[in-house]
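Hey, quick one: can you model this chain's 3D structure?
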Amino acid sequence: MKREIKIFKSFEEQEQYFLEYFISLTPSERLRSLAELQQKNYPDFNKPFQKIITIQKHYFADGH
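Sure thing. Here's the predicted structure for all 64 residues.
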């Protein structure tokens, strides 16, 4: 999405503008825009996900 400054009179007007903008994009442009958002919001998005599990064992000294 190209950067430009727009001034809107209401939230509804702003929402309508962005809906019309995204409707006018081709599917590949929409996917490219989504990828840009993911890279900005999740910088480690392309790295493989690694889940770490920690197991703790608790025991009682009096035999319970």
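One thing worth noting: Helices lie at 11-24, 27-41.
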